[in-house]
Write a structure and sequence with these properties.
By secondary structure, the protein is an alpha/beta fold. Helix content is 32%, strand content 18%. Among the domains are: 152 residues, 2-Layer Sandwich (VC0802-like); 190 residues, Vaccinia Virus protein VP39 (Rossmann fold).
Length: 571
């Protein structure tokens, strides 16, 4: 390989800046931040080092070539033009991982097959022998990324994803990714200068990653192998030197505490901690969030409670309420970070977050919220921070160059569900004018000053007015054999306009009786139904919660029950 070459690091949504900072500290050059990826330049030594030491990356790719391909034959020809003998021989094995976001190429497996054919045919023409394809443990791993007509072929230097550290021997039902846990800790400012607490540690991922950061132990040191170790130009001496270098490790004189209500989860966490060799620094206990004893020296807490997606406690909102009570009563003066995919649950904590970070946990959009726990009123707390010059004080962060629109040529442009809803709302408001809606997204059709009838010739469907419905109904009834002599019903009659639904000759006695019976049956059907608060009775009527009598009754039913500062009942 050349002395310096482009490298692409993949990561999770929301961790791009954290990964860029890590790479900068390792000596990367020309850093450029995209969506879920960071590109940079480095040499072979840096490639080995980032795979070994980067905590927030999932994979590192080395792009070989980027080209335009408008069909499968062009893709085959340009993939075949690469001199593959530089990277593997006929006796080696290879595998191809393909990702496709294109209308031209609609099947990722087909793209992988065409690139495989190009490699095999090149070797058959030159040596009359071809390398074999191996789905597992291949000598060379190739990544093909197609975005519309732009194709990028890269070498995968990592192999198995970097989030699989190698220390985990067991896991609970919904463990958090090691990469996401490390990114959360770095965003929370964890550096090992205080004691640390995770009251819902599960299988122990967050506490283990916290210990690795505190001791500055490379997370890749537990892995069995990397994909670059099988490359033809692999420098074993250089990698051994980096692997055995412990000069950057530091001492950790504090303690990391982890707890969970589940005894089996604590046993799994103990096995994982022992596998990582961190038993000396991590203390685990099986205890509920209500009964936990928070160490006075612990000033930072990061936790990953259930979201209600894969794990569904019977009263998950009560669980988040217990977190809030525990923080107020036992963690005064500390800083807590909580991640969840449900903002409704986070609101049950009963505290206002001072910072929110959008992250992605698996396929779920999450909020990572910071809570500063203080005694007394928030107003006094804010004034004190202002006097000390700490309020709204942001850490100096390096500014990294970002790609256009945040996307590289071989990245998928993604939108969250919130982005989709916001865009749909904007489009809806843009199409409305004077009570009419036009179903068109084309810029030339957004001039609302044009006549609505002129738009019909262009194939657009305007929102129909009441006059339209009345006219269509009248034409239908005139032409229909069932209603040829009948007048249109409702408020759109040409002559007198009785109430809605009034029959031509008025209601007959039998109709009124049948109508009353239906109402009585509906009322009888609701017998035994107990309306909740605000249901069943109009506002202001006696017994409703909007009337004075209703408020008095509510007070009587809740007499003797007090509420604390979070709006929950006191124990």
């Amino acid at each position: 390989m050349k002395e310096t070459f482009p490298i692409m690091g993949k990561t999770y949504k929301g961790l791009e800046e954290v990964l860029a900072k890590e790479l900068q500290d390792m000596g990367a050059q020309d850093i450029e931040v995209g969506n879920r990826a960071v590109s940079f330049k480095g040499d072979k030594s840096l490639l080995y080092k980032v795979n070994l030491c980067a905590r927030t990356a999932t994979r590192f790719l080395v792009p070989l070539v980027t080209f335009e391909a408008r069909d499968a034959d062009e893709l085959y020809a340009k993939a075949k033009a690469i001199d593959w003998s530089e990277y593997l021989s006929a006796d080696n094995t290879f595998s191809i991982d393909s990702t496709v976001y294109s209308e031209t190429f609609t099947h990722s497996k087909f793209v992988a097959y065409r690139v495989k054919d190009a490699i095999a045919d090149q070797f058959m023409e030159k040596e009359d022998k071809r390398p074999s394809v191996s789905l597992t443990n291949a000598d060379l791993m190739i990544n093909v990324h197609v975005s519309e007509t732009v194709c990028t072929i890269s070498l995968d230097s990592t192999g198995e994803s970097l989030h699989k550290r190698g220390y985990r021997v067991g896991q609970t039902e919904a463990p958090i990714s090691e990469v996401l846990a490390a990114g959360m800790l770095l965003q929370a400012g964890w550096d090992g200068s205080t004691d640390f607490m995770d009251p819902m540690c599960g299988s122990g991922t967050i506490v283990i990653e916290a210990a690795l950061i505190a001791l500055n132990i490379p997370p890749g040191i537990f892995r069995k192998e990397f994909a670059f170790e099988k490359w033809r130009d692999f420098d074993k001496d250089l990698f051994d030197e980096l692997y055995n270098d412990d000069s950057f490790e530091r001492e950790f004189n504090h303690k990391i505490y982890g707890s969970d209500i589940s005894v089996p989860a604590i046993r799994i966490a103990e096995q994982n901690v022992k596998s990582a060799g961190l038993t000396k620094y991590i203390e685990l206990n099986a205890v509920s969030i209500q009964d936990i004893e928070m160490p006075e020296s612990a000033k930072l807490m990061v936790t990953n409670p259930p979201y209600g997606e894969r794990l569904k406690p019977e009263k998950i909102q009560d669980l988040y309420g217990d977190i809030g009570r525990m923080l107020k009563q036992k963690f005064t003066g500390g800083t807590a970070w909580v991640i969840s995919s449900e903002e409704t649950y986070l609101s049950c904590i009963g505290m206002k977050p001072s910072q929110k970070i959008h992250l992605m946990n698996s396929e779920m959009d999450c909020l990572f919220c910071k809570y500063e726990v203080f005694a007394g009123k928030r107003e006094d707390f804010v004034k004190e921070k202002i006097r000390n010059g700490e309020y709204h004080k942001e850490e100096e962060k390096p500014e990294f160059k970002r790609t256009e629109r945040g996307h590289f040529s071989f990245e998928k442009e993604t939108r969250s569900f919130d982005d989709f809803k916001r865009e749909r709302k904007d489009n809806r408001e843009r199409r409305q004018h004077s009570g009419r809606r036009f179903y068109s997204d084309r810029p030339q059709d957004r001039n609302f000053g044009e006549n609505r009838d002129d738009r019909r010739d262009d194939g657009f469907r305007p929102r129909r007015s009441r006059e339209d419905f009345s006219r269509d109904d009248r034409d239908f009834r005139r032409d229909s054999k069932f209603g040829k002599d009948r007048k249109p019903f409702g408020k759109f009659r040409d002559s007198e306009k009785p109430s809605r639904g009034f029959k031509k000759d008025g209601w007959k006695d039998g109709d009124r009786k049948e109508r009353g019976d239906r109402r009585k049956f509906r009322d009888d059907d609701r017998k035994g139904f107990k309306p909740g608060r605000g249901e069943g009775k109009p506002f202001g009527r006696k017994g409703s919660f909007g009337a004075k009598g209703g408020r008095d009754n509510f007070k009587k039913r809740n007499e003797g029950r007090r509420k604390d500062s979070w709006g929950d009942e006191e124990d």
